[in-house]
TrEMBL record:
<dbReference type="Pfam" id="PF03960">
    <property type="entry name" value="ArsC"/>
</dbReference>
<comment type="similarity">
    <text>Belongs to the ArsC family.</text>
</comment>
<dbReference type="InterPro" id="IPR036249">
    <property type="entry name" value="Thioredoxin-like_sf"/>
</dbReference>
<protein>
    <recommendedName>
        <fullName>Arsenate reductase</fullName>
    </recommendedName>
</protein>
<dbReference type="InterPro" id="IPR006660">
    <property type="entry name" value="Arsenate_reductase-like"/>
</dbReference>
Length: 114
């Protein structure tokens, strides 16, 4: 079963949810703002996404700009920032077993679900 890391206030996240619903693919919604990911959860997620930690960061968020932008951060520091401030995590994220995708692009999402 797919898992979707979802932020109900995000239009792209709502679009992903609507698209996935139309495909009749079973999924579980994880509201990661209410149930924040741990450092270990984030490490595993980054591995599944096959990206660098900085690629998971919403770098235009005020929290990032005010606290982290322009600083030389290690991957571990970036992951700790994501764990501390869940709003910084790119969304939506669709997880299927050992693979995951940031589901902002519905065409890529469609290929991933198939």
């Amino acid at each position: 079963m797919l898992q979707i890391l979802h932020n109900p206030r995000c239009g792209k996240s709502r679009d992903c949810l609507a698209f996935t619903t139309k495909t009749n693919t079973p999924f579980e919604i994880i509201n990661y703002l209410e149930n924040p990911l741990t450092v270990d959860d984030l490490k595993l997620l980054i591995k599944k996404l096959k990206i660098k930690p900085i690629e998971l960061v919403r770098q235009k968020e005020t929290i990032w700009i005010e606290n982290y932008k322009g600083k030389s951060l290690t991957n571990a520091q970036i992951i700790k920032a994501l764990a501390k401030h869940s709003i910084l995590i790119e969304r939506p994220i669709v997880i299927d077993g050992d693979n995951a995708i940031i589901g902002r692009d519905l065409e890529k999402l469609e290929l991933f679900i198939k």
